[in-house]
Write a structure and sequence with these properties.
By secondary structure, the chain is mainly beta. The chain folds into two domains: 174 residues, Sandwich (Immunoglobulin-like); 224 residues, Glucose Permease (Domain IIA), CATH 2.70.70. It is built from three helices and 26 strands.
Length: 405
């Protein structure tokens, strides 16, 4: 299916390039007076190809009491000129085509990744034949009826006339009904910060969609890097480059659900905090880890654990119970500070699996960290009361500070 889709797009790109902007294929159907019709004809050719990465989206309820539909749209400019996405409106057909989300301006730019551009590049133009991702986070009130599908109205501009409509419909995106994985917390104690979490911010996890062996995978859509706000309100207390400065280093890691251990590693060395290591192979990025099959095709993945038998406390084949201590938080692999990288995926190999949404059964949210980057650099945490309160069956969202039993 994937290869057929890409072959079709290559044919279209080639065809548009050959015929240029004056081709009959690229023209609007004429109206009665010979002028272009105001409404596009059915089956129109559009300047941008739009499809939903992985085909559909599964909802998850966050600590903001909203049901999040977090997914990606794959975009391809089929024209022979530069193209800019100006506005995207999300339509809910189950509500009469009502606009349920809209992206434009800086917010739209912050959600776009254009292939070939360096990370964070301000230029969001799609060159001829260039593709990219638009990272979506459409939300509904918790408990609201969710649609079976979403559709879109795109508005684009081009550097030269193409003869194609610059406003067009696209979609649909199918909305699944599968329940998120219901789990316990992988940590205990107070003031655990949800780092690089879901959903509306393009964090290092949400943006981690790369072709592995020629195929795109998105295992980290809901992944979290857990670090702890210290009693002094800071990430570390002492020299930034010493592990002893991080009070939560060595914290116990708990199994989030009963299951069977299907993968471990305990041989990777501890890294020096304050900087990312150089020269790591891709398969070593997780450092020391544990993978547990928790059933229904879902796997809990815990990474960056301490080295050795005191850091990884289980072996492949072991059965674990919910809440059992399976390891200790470390600083191994691709990391610049001690933390637990946690996610639920649909396979036991993290690089080539897909993300599974999850909700933690019971915890308390203190609020949202408002000075995230400064805190990671040593500043004292500033926490707003937003999203604070008791949580049940919720996904901790990016920058929330949480207490676990």
């Amino acid at each position: 299916m994937e290869r057929k889709t890409w072959r079709w797009l290559v044919v279209v790109v080639t065809l548009i390039s050959m015929v240029g902007t004056s081709a009959a294929l690229a023209q609007k159907a004429p109206g009665p007076d010979g002028a272009p019709a105001s409404a596009p004809a059915p089956g129109q050719v559009t300047p941008l190809a739009v499809d939903t990465f992985e085909g559909r989206v599964e909802p998850v309820v966050g600590t903001d009491d909203r049901a999040h539909l977090a997914y990606e749209l794959r975009l391809i400019n089929i024209t022979a000129t530069d193209l800019t996405v100006e506005r995207v409106r999300v339509l809910d057909p189950s509500r009469g085509g009502r606009v349920v989300d809209e992206l434009s301006g800086d917010e739209l730019a912050s959600r776009l990744v254009v292939f070939g551009n360096p990370p964070g590049a301000p230029d969001k133009r799609f060159g001829p034949g260039v593709a990219g991702f638009l990272f979506m986070d459409v939300t509904y009130r918790s408990g609201a009826r969710l649609p079976d599908r979403l559709e879109y109205r795109f508005e684009v501009s081009t550097s030269k006339p193409t003869g194609l409509d610059d406003s067009f419909r696209a979609g649909p995106t199918r909305v699944g009904k599968e329940e998120p994985a219901q789990i316990g917390s992988p940590l205990s104690g107070k003031r655990w910060l949800t780092g690089e979490g879901c959903c509306d911010t393009l964090t290092s996890h949400r943006a981690a969609i790369f072709p592995i062996d020629g195929e795109f995978h998105a295992p980290e859509r809901f992944a979290i890097d857990w670090v702890q706000v210290g009693k002094n309100g800071k990430l570390y207390d002492g020299p930034k480059d010493e592990l002893s400065s991080y009070p939560y280093y060595g914290a116990k890691i708990h199994a989030v659900a009963a299951g069977r251990v299907v993968g471990t590693r305990d041989t990777e060395p501890e890294q020096t905090p304050g900087q990312f290591p150089n020269g790591l192979a891709l398969n070593d990025f997780g450092g020391n880890y544990v993978v547990v099959d928790i059933g229904e095709g879902r796997y809990a993945y815990y990474a960056h654990l301490q080295k050795g038998a005191k850091g990884v406390l289980v072996e492949p084949g072991d059965r674990v119970r919910k809440g059992q201590v399976i390891g200790k938080l470390g600083n191994t692999g691709n990391t610049d500070a001690p933390h637990l990288h946690f996610m639920v995926i649909d396979g036991k190999e993290p690089l080539t699996s897909g993300a599974v949404p999850f909700e933690i059964d019971s915890f308390y949210t203190r609020g949202v960290l408002t000075n995230y980057e400064a805190f990671l650099s040593g500043a004292k945490a500033e926490i707003s009361p937003k999203q604070s309160g008791k949580q049940r069956d919720r996904l901790p969202l990016h920058r929330t500070v949480n207490d676990f039993r």
